Amino acid sequence: KSIVVDDVNGDTILDIIISGQGSGRNNIGVLYGLNDGTFLVRKSYSTGVTAAALSIAIADFDNDDGKDFVT
Questions:
Q1: Domain residue limits, the chain
Q2: Which InterPro entries does its entry note (predicted)?
Q3: pLDDT tens readout for residues 52-62
């Protein structure tokens, strides 16, 4: 598993992104940060592949000014 902290939804509040979530460990979990220092319940996103997502990196890989995940 890998953990990254970044603002992934553009609200200027840091979020926590965790790879290797779910029964097949092929999901990414995101805990969206709130301005009171707490987080929303984890939301899972499928990577679309069957291999385990053991590491994660975040950047704007496609030059659309948005954050992208790569596992």
A1: 3-70
A2: FG-GAP, Integrin_alpha_N
A3: 777 888 999 99
